[in-house]
Write a structure and sequence with these properties.
Layout: H1 2-42, H2 57-78, H3 85-88, H4 91-100, H5 106-123, H6 129-163, H7 168-171, H8 198-213, H9 218-234, H10 240-263, E1 268-270, E2 276-278, E3 281-282, H11 284-287, E4 318-319
Antiparallel strand pairs: 1-2, 3-4
Membrane topology: Multi-pass membrane protein
Protein name: Undecaprenyl-diphosphatase
Pfam family, one: PAP2
Length: about 325
């Protein structure tokens, strides 16, 4: 009897220790996220202001009007021609598109980014000063990528379910003229969530965000985004107008996030002409310091102030 009681007490104590560790980790993560967002909000905007090509305020407005016109034209002239495209396309193209389209799911990119960001944020509260600086540098970059992709994806998900445009495969069963223009507002069904395309939004937001962070891979990333988004048309999940609208929204959101970070000199630097360039990040050797086990309890109840995320590790330890 006493042995059983002792075993039960040991198991209870072990469970309590696990729960405390998990609680410490969640607390650290929430505090870190709050501090990171507050840091980005409060950081002073630098001079000169970042510039994205020719896009000033009026140019951006003109481009938005032009995009709206193109999307409307596609709805009227091109979308009807793509009805039932999946049934007409070669079987190999449908199979290839079915495999490739998975890369456009938001979870494919957001889950790894989220897990990596959570880990890096917790590391900023443990370890020595250099490890914290490296973790802050990594967290800033992962945070930029996450903010460039996740919010616009969530917004598009709400909008497309609210508008309730019938997807091509659903519109085929709707009688009457112009079934591709069927909108059932606030129906909140997957088959009536066509406009705009969430896949295209996520794909282009991710491609643009990663391209600005890794300029050498810019061409590959941007070129790859087009066939991934186009698979939605081949599979009769979206119309061309849905894909174009999603691609524009994803691109605009990513570029806006770039300007947000660059204006505050976080992750990105701005030269005298206003051109945005990514800051150098930690070297692979320094990144290995982040692989040490994380013990949230080491941080204790008193958390240190947040690390400066505007810069990378010292120049001699960084690489482009």
């Amino acid at each position: 009897m006493s042995t059983e009681v002792g075993t039960g007490a040991a198991q209870s104590g072990s469970l309590a220790a696990i729960l405390r560790t998990v609680g410490d980790g969640v607390r650290l993560l929430l505090v870190s996220i709050w501090r990171g967002l507050a840091y980005l909000r409060d950081r002073r905007i630098g001079v000169p202001r970042p510039r994205l090509g020719f896009l000033g305020r009026w140019e951006a407005l003109a481009l938005a009007v032009l995009t709206a016109g193109v999307v409307a034209a596609l709805m009227l002239l091109v979308d009807p021609l793509t009805m039932g495209l999946r049934l007409k396309a070669p079987s190999w193209l449908v199979i290839f598109s079915d495999r490739l389209t998975d890369l456009g799911f938001s979870g494919v990119v957001l889950w790894p980014l989220g897990i990596g960001l959570a880990y890096a944020l917790m590391i900023t509260h443990v370890g020595d000063e250099m490890t914290r600086r490296i973790a802050a540098s990594v967290a800033a970059r992962l945070g930029f990528l996450f903010l460039a992709i996740a919010p616009v994806g969530l917004l598009v998900a709400i909008v497309k379910h609210s508008l309730g445009r019938a997807r091509p495969h659903a519109a085929m069963h709707i009688k009457g003229p112009s079934p591709e223009m069927t909108f059932d507002f606030l129906i909140w069904k997957s088959s009536f969530a066509s406009f705009p395309s969430g896949h295209a939004t996520t794909t282009f937001a991710a491609a643009v965000a990663f391209a600005t962070l890794f300029p050498r891979a810019r061409t590959i990333l941007l070129v790859a985004a087009f066939p991934i988004a186009a698979t939605r048309i081949v599979l009769s999940s979206h119309y061309p107008s849905d894909v174009v609208a999603g691609a524009v929204l994803g691109t605009a959101a990513a570029l806006w996030t770039v300007k947000l970070f660059a204006a505050r000199r976080v992750v990105f630097a701005v030269d005298a002409g206003g051109t945005i360039v990514p800051m150098a990040g930690p070297s692979a050797r320094r990144l290995a310091r982040l692989l040490a086990p994380v013990n949230p309890a080491r941080a204790g109840s008193s958390l240190p102030p947040p690390q400066d995320m505007s810069t990378a590790v010292p120049a001699q330890e960084a690489r482009p």
